[in-house]
């Protein structure tokens, strides 16, 4: 009974722990060889079994790397963090990260790094055997937080089964992506993603962006109207204005406070972020788990991520936001405290009849992880089926 209770507690915590606003370390060494499919499909069980063993099995060096990187071989199980930062013999975060990589590999995706002309390197997951003649390309863009694997793992198999070829990049300064450019704009992120798709020969594609990824998706749609077929924006406050902070629309009143939450340095701030993001946060959040996550994932590129936030908000006016021409599905958690529901209605008014708003009940900003079944169902229906005549009406689920 004690072991069963322990397993259920771990499973409950991990489900909450993988939410969309976790910051992450971006210095990733990308391995060309796929990680083997995990023997346990339950992430909590996989995590439990690996954390109950010595850390040495994760330290198996793999010398096969993507040719686009010049990195030295590293440990397969701890690829996003250096050994100098491993203060304890077991890292919960490292095991979670390894599990999500294995999930992507098992779904038929392969990791790679694409180097662009300006020195930017973008890490992404793409189909091992793309089939553009019979399958539609769909680009999933993560939010301001954990790398793509943490945010999109529940969506892989349903979307692939529905007939999509998935392309899942890490944005600059997240996961394994980096840029020497001082440009911190969402335009730079958008151009980089488009540059990667150009290299891969993807001419037309759909877009799904969550939170900050929605800002980037909006810019891609603006820059490439003839290539982007349709867009899904999930809790993406692209219609916010800089004055909204001082008017009290958000729980923070300035960019510095927002950065403290989204790039946390202390367990207390990380716990606050979890409570802010989920409608039903976990009752127990051990500080040791929080410290492990911060130590492993949040120590690099903190300043760059703060600058991304600053650029996103400063001098932002709705009057300067162009209207994208693609059919757009707006998905929002009814109890979103990061980007309040007012921004969803504002975006709907801005795009007018070209958009459809779906509000998901009992969900917050992490709606993509709280209600993945509802979200993926709406995504598939939107891309596969034509928009209904009443697409201008709000809809709740």
UniProtKB/TrEMBL annotation:
GO terms for molecular function: catalytic activity. This is AB hydrolase-1 domain-containing protein. SUPFAM superfamilies: alpha/beta-Hydrolases. Gene3D superfamilies: alpha/beta hydrolase (3.40.50.1820). Residues 137-372 form the AB hydrolase-1 domain. It holds the Pfam family Abhydrolase_1. It comes from the Eukaryota. PANTHER family: ALPHA_BETA-HYDROLASES SUPERFAMILY PROTEIN (PTHR43139:SF59), SI:DKEY-122A22.2 (PTHR43139). InterPro entries: AB_hydrolase_1 (IPR000073), AB_hydrolase_fold (IPR029058), Epox_hydrolase-like (IPR000639), Meta-cleavage_hydrolase (IPR052370).
């Amino acid at each position: 009974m004690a072991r069963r209770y322990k397993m259920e507690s771990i499973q409950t915590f991990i489900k909450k722990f993988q939410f969309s606003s976790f910051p992450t370390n971006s210095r990733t060494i990308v391995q060309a060889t796929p990680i083997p499919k995990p023997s346990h499909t339950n992430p909590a069980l996989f995590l439990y079994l690996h954390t109950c063993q010595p850390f040495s099995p994760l330290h198996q060096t793999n010398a096969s790397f993507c040719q686009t990187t010049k990195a030295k071989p590293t440990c397969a199980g701890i690829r996003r963090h250096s050994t100098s930062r491993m203060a304890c013999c077991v890292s919960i975060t490292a095991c979670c990260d390894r599990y999500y990589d294995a999930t992507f590999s098992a779904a038929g995706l392969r990791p790679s790094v694409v180097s662009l002309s300006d020195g930017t390197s973008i890490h992404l997951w793409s189909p091992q055997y793309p089939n553009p003649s019979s399958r539609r390309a769909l680009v999933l863009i993560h939010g301001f937080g954990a790398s793509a694997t943490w945010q999109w793992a529940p969506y892989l198999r349903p979307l692939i089964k529905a007939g999509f070829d998935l392309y899942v990049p890490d944005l600059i300064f997240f996961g394994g992506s980096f840029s020497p450019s001082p440009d911190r704009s969402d335009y730079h992120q958008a151009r980089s993603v488009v540059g990667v798709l150009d290299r891969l020969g993807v001419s037309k594609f759909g877009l799904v962006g969550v939170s900050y990824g929605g800002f980037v998706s909006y810019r891609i749609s603006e820059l490439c109207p003839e290539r982007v077929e349709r867009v899904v924006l999930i809790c993406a406050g692209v219609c916010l204005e800089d004055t909204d902070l001082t008017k009290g629309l958000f729980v923070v009143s300035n960019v510095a406070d927002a950065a403290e939450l989204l790039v946390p340095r202390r367990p207390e701030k990380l716990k606050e972020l979890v409570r802010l993001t989920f409608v039903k946060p976990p009752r127990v959040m051990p500080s040791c788990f929080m410290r492990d996550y911060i130590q492993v994932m949040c120590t690099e590129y903190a300043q760059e991520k703060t600058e991304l936030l600053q650029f996103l908000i400063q001098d932002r006016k709705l009057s300067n936001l162009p209207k994208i021409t693609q059919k757009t599905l707006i998905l929002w958690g009814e109890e979103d405290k990061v980007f309040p529901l007012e921004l969803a209605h504002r975006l709907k008014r801005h795009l007018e009849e070209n958009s459809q708003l779906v509000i998901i009940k009992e969900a917050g900003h992490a709606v993509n992880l709280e209600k993945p079944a509802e979200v993926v169902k709406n995504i598939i229906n939107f891309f596969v089926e034509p928009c209904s005549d009443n697409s201008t009406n709000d809809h709740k689920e």
